[in-house]
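request received
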Amino acid sequence: MSTPAIEISGLTKDYSLGFWRKRTRRSLDNLSLQVEDGEVFGFLGPNGAGKTTTLKLLMGLIFPTAGTARIRGRSIDDVGMHRDIGYLPEQPYFYDYLTARELLDYYARLFGYGAADRRERVARFLERVGLSSAANVQLRKFSKGMLQRAGIAQAILHDPQVVFLDEPMSGLDPVGRREVRDIILELKQQGRTVFFSTHILSDAEMLCDRVAVLVGGKLQGVGSPGEIVSIEVSGMEILFEAREGHPLPQKLAQRAAKTGARYRIEVPEAELYTALDVLRDCEARILSIQPLRPTLEDYFFRLVDRQKAAAHAVEVETR
Amino acid sequence: MSAARIAIPGVVAVNTFREAVRDRVLYNLIFFALMMIGAAIFVGEISIGIERLVIVNLGLSAISLIGLVMAIFIGVGLVYKEMEKRTLYSLLAKPVRRWEFLVGKYGGLLLTLLVNTSLMTLGLFAALLYVSGRFQRSDVSILVAVYFILLELALVTALALFFSCFSSPMLSTLFTLGIYITGVFSQDIRDFGEVTKNAQLGAVTRVLYYLLPNFHNFNSIAAASHGDPVPLRLIAQNTLYALLYVTVVLLGAATVFSRRNLR
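response:
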């Protein structure tokens, strides 16, 4: 059995607050999970859930209060392990007096690449993230999206086996987001492991083999996006066009949302055939029938609501 | 230790130097050049026979002061700026140890100070040539004074870097400046303790004297302006003292910084 790409065991982080009266705030609570080699793993959660804290712990930027983590079998304390990993921080900011080319060259030097290798590598990755034309522009003149691209380039510049991306789609336009998605898929095709945090759930649904959901520093669940959402079907959506001279029965018309010539109606699964019978009677043209599944977003909100309710219950009990 | 490992502080140092150059830090040289030109012309007019003394005194004092301002004000921001702007995040995610980053930043500022001081020294010699018409053998003592200034700046930079590992630039500036001023008068502090004949106070001032850096010994501006030779023993002693002190301060900085959470 191959070594997991990432193994996290009981990782906990408390922050001290206050100057005189010391208090602690738990930012991450006993996180344990495992990411297999070659997986695209989504780390989901609302702002303040502990996603960035986890990534900073894995990068050795902050130190855990408890717990351990290993990347490709090596402890996160081992700086040598950083040769195998790439990291895009959230809202990256780089030396603004450097050009994009100089920035990547600087980072490439830290890996000990020779001059010719650096030149080729820097040009290739600038091209890969669509920054070739801005290669000689100082980063202070870069837009947020361009900085994000430069950030992705520096994260994958040394062909790391495991790539950590903190909110990689943040600040990007739709084209930029598609390009980042392509990069992630390309990394997967190359057999790399990608661990990315996001609160944009559609991206996770589209890209991830598995996801973990983190709320309030606590892990809520790990699994494939399908498992997390479950296959429960909450209803059926019917999209149809009505025929001229065949008005819809009033009961149906009241429930339908009309856009141009099209109607959209949601019915409970058990009432699907009854609704179709009615539509057949009035010779409606059925365009599509789709099961309504809760999205990751719904799952996400349900978790947050559940947690709020639990916190409220504890509060009431302790009063 | 591999060659690549040793090279990392060097890579960081070159980038720090490049930052200083692009941030127009070396523009202070224009001020220095203008001052030396003005002084050379003015001194030639008014001070007969002591032109050399005035130019050397003024030039070395300016080199020391400008270097000090740079060492403190850039030094206290070396680490803080990287943390504040989060440029450190991407850097430390690379195979870079925290002490390597610190040594690199320190080396980069030292390189900036070396280039700046060297250019100012060239300016000083140009002004000296203008007023004296020739160089003298005793001008070597000017180079020794510049060397001492560089040692002093190396120490001040290390202190500024040390404080910037755990406090804000404002506090770091105050701490560094405070230690520098106390260090200049450390000999007087010890003498004061002895004069009072109070055993406890004497012990305190003695501890302070040995603990705080002694900047007094690095000042040979007066000797240089009079063309007095500086004993070799003092050069060796100052070099060793600065090396040891810088090493201890940098070790302290690395220890503090290696445990710091980068929030």
